[in-house]
Write a structure and sequence with these properties.
Elements (H helix, E strand, L loop, with lengths): L11 H12 L6 H9 L11 E4 L2 E5 L9 H18 L5 E7 L3 H10 L5 E8 L5 H8 L6 E7 L2 H22 L2 E4 L6 H20 L9 E6 L4 H11 L4 E8 L4 H8 L1 E3 L20 H8 L4 H14 L1 E3 L2 H10 E5 L2 H15 L5 H15 L7 E5 L7 H7 L8 H12 L5 H4 L11 E3 L3 H11 L7
Parallel strand pairs: 2-12, 3-4, 3-6, 4-5, 5-13, 7-8, 7-12, 8-11
Antiparallel strand pairs: 1-2, 9-10
Helix pairs in contact: 1-2, 1-7, 2-3, 3-4, 3-7, 7-8, 13-14, 13-15, 15-16
This protein binds pyridoxal-5'-phosphate (PLP).
């Protein structure tokens, strides 16, 4: 069992070391790995600080290289992979292929940048990511990174990556010098580093005298693929006194409905919203929760997943539903309320939030009305407001025609906050990757990159 009380008072890096060591028992030198993963990459030594905003506590997860919470895991994963390769004395290079709808791609490129023995190729849908997101990828640095736009939507791109894996993998394997891997959120190496910030947030509240060790708190998590909130569930299972995890959805509210009724039904319209990283109808990581809710019954999970792929729908048993509702609550927020929440929170507190955080904020407010006894609620803030400037500008009443950068300047002026340096300086960077390819050309693109030789040098 995990001695969770010992994490109280530890630094964020120490906590991360404890948690990684607990899960990755074969690994040597975890503290060194953690140090290399996070040193000089985040703009604050606290990594993920907690701020009091109105009556809530906001856990800021956007202080990493790409200003979104995925940096926490994607800073650690490449170092873990590279270290495993070294400890196992493997000689093969690791090639990461990733499809992205925006945030994952750049965070993964930053994480793998110049990591010895690894290389990464990111594919994104042509015209399907925001201009800022595209620039973040096309100007990415590092000898071992590439990005290309693919003619198709995100699903086509993702399918293209999966289809490249088989034949390409075989071919590379036969060559003997390269293995393929992925950086998406079903990789356990992405989940585990995220558990740490739930513990750090708890420590922060103890330190500030808001709670004493042992008191229960709630967390509210803006949710898409169910990775972030699942890390919270694992923290709860490890003993952290979490009463409930509030799963906040946008207009794509399949998870809220699931938590309310026990029926998961993806047969519904798909909406593009102002919180695009949560526009998702099939949350991959939910499968892991189903495993826990069924007391580890692989048979049950298999049956449910079969129903999902055949009918787009399944219903869990009443026992599983009772467990689900004991640990989770679901809320949803529409488009107007999302923008309205950004405005209201700013007017009332002077604190500027992004669209995903706004969905969580509004979810926390609705939840509070019928959650029973009140306990402190920590809202996870998953991105900087400057990453989604159009909706934030609308919330602040900024009108007129602006390009992606001048709108940041306007937001800075109106809100008296500063646009993050890492976004502002994008406009001066060289575009390195401007290829637009067909789905059918993805494998050839990968082989060409390999021929050019781009893996990180051995240290
Ligand atoms: C990915 C993402 C989410 C959703 O996280 P999941 O782990 O997919 O549930 C929320 N907000 C932002 C800004 C994201 O990039």
């Amino acid at each position: 069992d995990f001695p969770w009380k010992e994490t109280i008072g530890l630094t964020p890096l120490e906590t991360a070391s404890r948690i990684l060591s607990y899960f990755l028992t074969d690994f040597e030198e975890i503290p060194g790995v953690v140090e290399r993963a996070y040193r000089d990459k985040f703009d604050t030594p606290e990594l993920t600080p907690v701020k009091k905003v109105g009556k809530y506590y906001v856990l800021e997860l956007f202080h990493g290289p790409t200003l979104a919470f995925k940096d926490v895991a994607l800073s650690a994963l490449p170092v873990l992979m590279s270290e495993a390769r070294k400890q196992l004395k493997k000689k093969e290079n690791i090639l990461i292929l990733t499809a992205t709808s925006g945030d994952t791609g750049k965070a993964a490129m930053e994480g793998f940048k110049d990591v010895p023995g690894t290389g990464i190729i990111v594919f994104y849908p042509y015209g399907g990511v925001s201009p800022v997101q595209e620039l973040q990828m096309s100007t990415a640095e590092g000898c071992n990174v590439r990005a290309a736009a693919v003619r198709g939507n995100f699903d086509d791109t993702q399918t293209g990556v999966k289809q490249s894996f088989g034949p390409l993998g075989k071919k590379l394997e036969n060559g003997g010098s390269t293995v393929l891997s992925s950086a998406n959120s079903i990789n356990i190496g992405r989940l585990v580093p995220q558990i740490a910030y739930y513990f750090n947030a708890y420590t922060a509240l103890v330190k500030d005298g808001v709670i004493t060790a042992g008191d229960e708190i709630d967390f509210t998590v803006p949710t898409g693929n169910f990775g972030d909130i699942l890390a919270g569930w694992y923290a709860k299972k490890m003993g952290l006194p979490v009463r409930r995890l509030v799963c906040a959805s946008n207009k794509n509210n399949v998870l809220k409905n699931f938590i309310d009724t026990g029926v998961y039904d993806k047969n519904r319209p798909f909406y593009r919203t102002v919180s695009p990283s949560m526009d998702i109808l099939v949350s991959s990581n939910l499968e892991r929760l189903l495993y826990d809710l069924s007391d580890g019954s692989c048979e049950t999970v298999k049956t449910l997943m079969k129903q999902l792929s055949e009918d787009g729908k399944y219903e869990i048993s009443s026992e599983m539903l009772a467990k689900l509702q004991a640990g989770f609550a679901g809320e949803d927020t529409g488009e107007e309320d999302t923008v309205g929440t950004i405005r209201r929170v700013f007017d009332e507190t002077g604190y500027l939030i992004d669209t995903h955080t706004a969905v969580a904020f509004s979810g926390a407010e609705v939840y509070e009305k019928d959650c029973g006894a009140k306990v402190p609620n920590v809202i996870l803030s998953t991105a900087s407001a400057y990453k989604f400037p159009d909706a934030v500008a609308e919330a602040l009443g900024i009108t007129g025609e602006f390009d992606a950068f001048s709108v940041m300047d306007e937001i800075a002026k109106v809100s008296s906050t500063a646009a993050p340096e890492r976004l502002r300086t994008l406009r001066e960077k060289n575009v390195r990757f401007s290829d637009v390819i067909d789905i059918s050309g993805m494998s050839a693109y990968v082989e060409k990159a390999l021929q050019d030789g781009f893996f990180g040098e051995e240290a």
